[in-house]
Fold:
Amino acid sequence: MTKRFCILFTAILTGLVFLCVGTLIAGDKQVVPDKVTIENKGYKKDKKRPVPLSHKAHSTDKKYGPVKCADCHHVYKDGKNVWKEGDYVDKCSKCHDPKKNTKEDGVKVMKLQNAYHKNCKNCHKKEKKGPFKKCNDCHVKK
Ligand code: HEC
Ligand code: HEC
Ligand code: HEC
Ligand code: HEC
Structure:
């Protein structure tokens, strides 16, 4: 009787442990947002308005190209972008400093404002679509 109870008890306990670990792992998954408002702090002068990005449309809607996730997201290893869809996405500001250009393993990492401008504007210019001349097409008025 007590032995059977013991087995049952152990089984339930094991089940609970798996359930907990499962939830923890699932909780690590990031949601891919529909829209992103790009609004960082820490600039020398934060004088321009935040920039809304149609995040999902940029990578799924045909009229945008479509653009690939890795056109905007990267993790460099030996000069190569090793980031792939499903990997964790850090904020751009984790690596690009809002105040100054920095260096990582001898490679220049441009400051945050320039990183955004280069990423967003260069593609718009190349594709001849999307804003790159008029500041307020990105830094929109509310
Ligand atoms: C294609 C979109 C785009 C265009 C066009 C654009 N910007 Fe930006 N800009 C951004 C993004 C995105 C950021 C990052 C905003 C943040 O982090 O809060 C930024 C940041 C900045 C910042 C630093 C943050 C701040 O609020 O002070 C300045 C200054 C700035 N832009 C000025 C300009 C000026 C001037 C123009 C026009 C000549 C311009 N931008 C055009 C997208 C754009
Ligand atoms: C046009 C550029 C661009 C494209 C294309 C793009 N993203 Fe993003 N994504 C961003 C920016 C900008 C942010 C906000 C980063 C920040 O706040 O510093 C972001 C944020 C994220 C986040 C983080 C959300 C959070 O919780 O912080 C995830 C996850 C993500 N993107 C996944 C993807 C995936 C998957 C794709 C392709 C299907 C994709 N992105 C395509 C620019 C892009
Ligand atoms: C994990 C750190 C990290 C994150 C997060 C990151 N970057 Fe970078 N980024 C780098 C490094 C390191 C380089 C320099 C790589 C080189 O030149 O070989 C770089 C280079 C760049 C460049 C210049 C090279 C190119 O591709 O044209 C741009 C533009 C850029 N990043 C924009 C962004 C934007 C926008 C985001 C957020 C959506 C972002 N970065 C997030 C580390 C990061
Ligand atoms: C690799 C190419 C690419 C990159 C990188 C890119 N875009 Fe775009 N974007 C496009 C294209 C193509 C269009 C035009 C879509 C159309 O025809 O309406 C566009 C349109 C836009 C528009 C106007 C339509 C809308 O969606 O509201 C805004 C605003 C915009 N982009 C903001 C940004 C910002 C901010 C970034 C940087 C974080 C960025 N884009 C990065 C390709 C790109």
